[in-house]
Amino acid sequence: MTQELLCEKREDGVAFLTINREERRNALSDTLISTMIETFQSLEEDASVRVVCLTGAGKKAFSSGADLMAGFSAADEDPTAGTRKYARLLQVMQSFSKPLIARVNGLALGGGLGLMLACDIVIAQEDVKVGTPEVRVGLFPMMISPLILSHMPRKAAMKMILCGDRISAQEALSYHMINQVVPSENLDEAVEATLLSVLGGAPLAQQEGKRAIQETASRPFEEAVEELAASLYKLIQTEDAMEGIAAFVEKRAPSWKGQ
Question: Could you give the CA distance from residue 27 to residue 203 in angstroms, rounded to a whole number?
Fold first, then answer.
């Protein structure tokens, strides 16, 4: 049986995750979702991994969303198990402390769009389409709607959702759903440049900063800024901060330890 998720780690701290269901346009099966949850949890604990890049196999799809042909749960299981498992995957990705980059090499639809929006940085090739076709099969993009509405203006989001529209990579870029759009032949080069740029930052600062942003995002400004000030003070005490400041003064590249 073909592995539905491939994980390749590089010595420089980059881990590539590839949804490996090209024949199904990288649709999300129950097994694949479980594997993705376990893999993200494992990568979270792996000190050798600095940044994760998520993509889809082949050239047609990043992920086309739920595999409607397979369904999410067997008849004797909790009928809500599959949808709750996908919700859990989004939670795991949203709370993932390491930089998460999406290499969008094709369609990102429904649940696949949710995966894309759960990433920190999104780089897409120019012929990509993203969208929410759920209403056309009697469903609705329930779990990804908070992610959509955190990026798109409400009117634009509701038109896409209620009409089941697909929008272009350039339109998605204008809504800040995507960071960079490039020709297909330049996709890997653009992704690699971003990965190297992320690796140039201090890993502990990136991870603690992501956690702080996630924890304070919904809090009142006065409360959030107070907590963020305390988080910054903790970072100032770290070896990486001392090294970074010393490297800046000495005009050299810093050597990060993640401590």
Answer: 32
Same domain assignment for residues 105 and 212 = no
Do 186 and 217 lie in one domain? The reply is no
Q: Is residue 139 located within the same domain as residue 16?
A: yes
**Encoding tokens for residue 19?**
């949804």
Contact 51, 199 (CB under 8 A): yes
Tens digits of per-residue pLDDT, 9-44? Answer: 999 999 999 999 999 999 999 999 999 999 999 999
Residue 137 exposed, middle or buried by CB count within 10 Å (0-12, 13-18, 19+):
exposed
- pTM above threshold 0.85: yes
CB 256, CB 202: distance < 8 Å: yes
7-35 in b/e form (b: 16+ CB < 10 A) is: beeeeebbbbbbbbbbebbbbbbbebbeb
